[in-house]
Amino acid sequence: MDKIPDMIIVGAGLSGLLTAWRCLDVKPDLTVLVIEASDHIAGDHTWSFNLTDVDESLREWIKPFIAYQWPRYDVKFPKRERTLEIPYCTGNSETLRACVAPHLESGRLQIMLETKVTTLNAERVILENEEMLEAACVLDARGFAPNENVFLGYQKFVGKVIKTKQPHGLINPIIMDATVKQLGGYRFVYCLPFTEHEILVEDTYYTDGSELSEGEVSARVDDYIEAHGWGDHEVVRQEKGILPITLAVDAEYPIYNKKTIYLDDVQQIGIRGGFYHAVTGYSFPSALMMAYEIAAEIYDGDIEMLPSFIAASQNSHWDNEHFFRLLNRMLFRAAEPEKRYKVLERFYKLPEDLIERFYWGGLTENDKARILIGKPPVPVTKALYNFSEKAFIKRERAQRERKVRDKA
Ligand SMILES: Cc1cc2nc3c(=O)[nH]c(=O)nc-3n(C[C@H](O)[C@H](O)[C@H](O)COP(=O)(O)OP(=O)(O)OC[C@H]3O[C@@H](n4cnc5c(N)ncnc54)[C@H](O)[C@@H]3O)c2cc1C
After folding, report:
1. Burial class (CB in 10 A: 0-12, 13-18, 19+), 42
2. 241 lines ligand 1 (CB under 6 A)
3. What is the 3-state composition of the chain as percent helix, strand, coil, each rounded to the nearest 5?
4. 185 touches 205 (CB < 8 A)
5. Residue 362 has what DSSP assignment?
6. 337 lines ligand 1 (CB under 6 A)
7. To the nearest whole number, what is the mean pLDDT of the chain?
8. DSSP 40-95
9. What are the residues whose beta carbons fall under 8 Å from the beta carbon of 248, sequence distance 6 or more?
10. How confident is the model at residue 71, as a pLDDT?
């Protein structure tokens, strides 16, 4: 790529590469430069999702990304076990790299590795060595960054992919095994049986703070592995995650409710832009949809329209997640830590099609009523106290200010 690229994407993670892949697929004369701080693209990850999170029109396209697919999965709670007939899929770093490989070979996709971007706007980026690069459009896909207008809890986990000597015997993924001891928050174990001998076991917990005691959680994974008779094994890979779970978003947040789009605004995609599911912190379905929609804009020749398109998408994403943020406040602030699992135990009693809609973000008003109606698994006074997002934000801000004052 000797000429100036049409598009620069900062960050060769999930959203950056899905967007590059889709845009290059639909527009045969497009050129894209992806700038990545680390020494390789696509990280070292697995990304899972319900097949029903993906619009039917996109399923053929993402087939090469899917490394494993199961027809159904299980959930387990102290008083409920259930198998859901919802196909579950996992992609990984290798399959994502393979998806963009043809575009790398054609030269239309170029990657700069070990290059940190320090400053960026809608049409230019400045690198650590102060070099400046320009393009008709710059997208910011640098992953999570805290934002003082977004109030968070966290989903944290440590996972190990192990190879067992004997077949492990698990057929279906277990998306939540919450029969484990609840330790100061909602805790569950997540198991993905990749092959007869290979399985991912992940110990996950939802708590207020972002700190992760990796050693402690890793030991819990080992205990689970041992208790299930998979003790004779080797560890193939280990991963950890601290994912944002949104409790509230301030309506004054400059991106949210933004009426004016400035030409210089850099456009954020992926987790950076808030495009993740508020309850799970998972971003694959949103990243995929954004990649598809950005590519459609570019196909129509509207590369200059991308800033307003992405800002509008951010606004409608935050709007759509109002209800999820309310549920999170119930889970994190209304329920007693050791009893938070009951919120999910109750949720998994609901019809399968409602559960599908919950995950892809398409709940109807009727669905929302069904989720809320009935004997609440949280104290009513605490539920009411945390109902209003505005009042919640006011209290959180006051608490932050008190902490700053106390420190001074
Ligand atoms: C271990 C783990 C497992 C997860 N599992 C799932 C899952 O199963 N399903 C799901 O939907 N979600 C999952 N998530 C959540 C989320 O989907 C991922 O975090 C996803 O990778 C986010 O995509 P992204 O493109 O926004 O950011 P990332 O994939 O994190 O990519 C950001 C990239 O930007 C680069 N970068 C950062 N700063 C700079 C800079 N200044 N200059 C240049 N490059 C920079 C980083 O090195 C990185 O490569 C998981 C997260 C983790 C951590």
Report:
1. buried
2. yes
3. 40, 25, 35
4. yes
5. -
6. no
7. 92
8. SSSTT-EEEEEGGGS-GGGTTTTGGGEEEEES-EEEEETTEEEEE---EEEEEHHH
9. 150, 151, 325, 329, 389, 392, 393, 396
10. 98
Biggest alpha carbon distance in the chain?
Answer: 65
> Average pLDDT, stretch 64-69?
98
Residue 269: phi, psi to the nearest 5?
Answer: -125, 175
Q: Which helix H or strand E contains 238, and what residues bound it?
A: strand 233-249
pLDDT (0 to 100) of residue 253: 57
Six-digit token string for 199: 């399985």
Cβ burial, residue 332 (10 Å; 0-12/13-18/19+): buried
Cα separation, 226 vs 26, in Å, equals 48
Mean per-residue pLDDT for 402-406? 89
Q: What is the CA(87)–ligand 1 centre distance, in A?
A: 24
Per-residue confidence (pLDDT) for residue 7, from 0 to 100: 94
d(CA 108, CA 6): 10
pLDDT score, position 259: 45
Instruction: Name the residue with the closest Cα to ligand 1, atom 6.
Output: 47
CA-11 nearest atom, ligand 1: 34
Q: State the pLDDT at residue 302.
A: 75
- Does residue 20 register a pLDDT over 90? yes
What are the angstrom distances between the C-alpha of 128 and each of 37, 89, 114, 307?
10, 38, 10, 25
Q: For a pocket test of ligand 1, which of 21, 36, 66, 192 has the largest count of ligand atoms closer than 8 A to its C-beta? A: 36
Q: Which domains does the chain have, with CATH numbers?
A: 7-148+250-320 (3.50.50.60), 150-247 (3.30.70), 322-407 (no CATH)
Instruction: Compute the distance from residue 13 Cα to the ligand 1 centre, in Å.
Output: 5
Q: Kind and range of the H or E element at 89?
A: strand 88-92
Determine the length of the chain.
408
Q: Extract the tokens encoding 150.
A: 């977004």
Distance CA 291, CA 269 (A): 9
Rounded (10°) CA dihedral 191, 192, 193, 199: -70
Q: Does residue 376 carry a pLDDT above 80? A: no
Element housing 291 (H / E): helix 284-299
Tokens of 114: 């070990």
Statement: residue 189 has pLDDT above 90: yes
pLDDT value of position 15: 98
Q: Which tens digits make up the pLDDT trace of 265-280?
A: 678 999 999 999 999 9
Q: Token pair 């049986």 is at which residue?
A: 193
